[in-house]
Amino acid sequence: MPLELIKQFDLPNQETVYVYQGKKSDKDIVIKYRDKFTPERSKGRQLSHTVWTVAILMKLQGNKALTRKYVAYLLKIYDEIKGFESKEQQLKCELKYAGKSDLKEFEELNKYGQFSIELLTYIMELLSIEEKTDTKAGREVYMFRNLLQQLSEKDDIYSIIGASRYAGKK
After folding, report:
1. pTM listed for this prediction
2. Most buried pick, 23, 102, 144, 168, via CB within 10 A?
């Protein structure tokens, strides 16, 4: 059964973010993206934790200080975001940070890796919402935040990638 599209965000540079109805709950979402490397026949790719982690690691290699500042910005988003509290909120899928002008200071990072800062920010805000909406037996899940925290503090690629692979299995 195909996923039901809730919202589509068309970004510059041939990038699109799709938000679909997920299957875990009535407020769950599935996030997919298209960029200039996505095959035409594809309805979008779902970004794994490992793939976005590698994207940020590539930006760290290009400009460590600015990337760490960007990851701190993503942590701020995570800490301020709330999960969807109603089906109506999910269907509106209004984002507070993605697409805002305060991303301009991070534009230099677009030189490093495949994903633009704008695309990553849309995906990261949506992943934050998804993680905070997806509660198991009333307890919140923090794997996404923990991975961002590691990216902000560690230089050990092996442990960061290992954490991203573990996070995806939970």
Report:
1. 0.88
2. 144
